[in-house]
Specification:
- It is a single chain.
- By secondary structure, the protein is α+β, with helices and mostly antiparallel strands.
- The protein has one domain: Zincin-like (2-Layer Sandwich).
- It has 3 helices and 4 strands.
- Strand 3 and strand 4 form a beta hairpin.
- Helix 1 crosses helix 2.
- The protein is globular.
């Protein structure tokens, strides 16, 4: 199912304007001011788990879009925003590493699943550090 945009004029969570201000703060902190990054509020339409964020990126053009769920908020918007920004920062390295892995293993393999799990753990850990919240591992 394709993600669809929603109107962000809602009572729960931050407004799109507030999210964009927060994005500007974190782009500056993460030295990503040279990136053109936008935010889209979407309905992920997943039934297997609650997805709060995702991203699309063009590393060469330094252009990205952060997708945030439209569900009445979803948890911690700042965490999700920083988490997705870190994925964007790591994206070039991530894609290279994944391609090397996929030279030996299938996308449905345990090795690929482990790679994705380790990537998420690393991004989660870095997000917690940046937000000065410590890590629960």
């Amino acid at each position: 199912m394709k993600d669809t945009e929603f109107d962000v004029n809602k009572n729960n969570g931050l407004t799109k304007k507030e999210l964009e201000k927060l994005l500007n703060v974190w782009q500056d902190r993460l030295r990503m001011s040279d990136w053109n990054i936008s935010i889209s509020i979407v309905n992920f339409g997943r039934k297997d788990y609650k997805q709060s964020g995702d991203f699309e990126a063009d590393v060469l053009a330094k252009k990205a879009k952060i997708l945030l769920t439209a569900k009445p908020f979803r948890g911690d918007e700042e965490y999700t925003l920083v988490h997705e920004l870190l994925h964007i920062l790591l994206y070039d390295y991530d894609k290279f590493s994944e391609e090397v892995l996929l030279d030996r293993f299938d996308v449905d393999s345990k090795q690929h699943d482990k790679y994705m799990e380790k990537l998420e753990e690393t991004v989660h850990h870095l997000t917690e550090i940046l937000l000065s919240r410590g890590c629960n591992h």
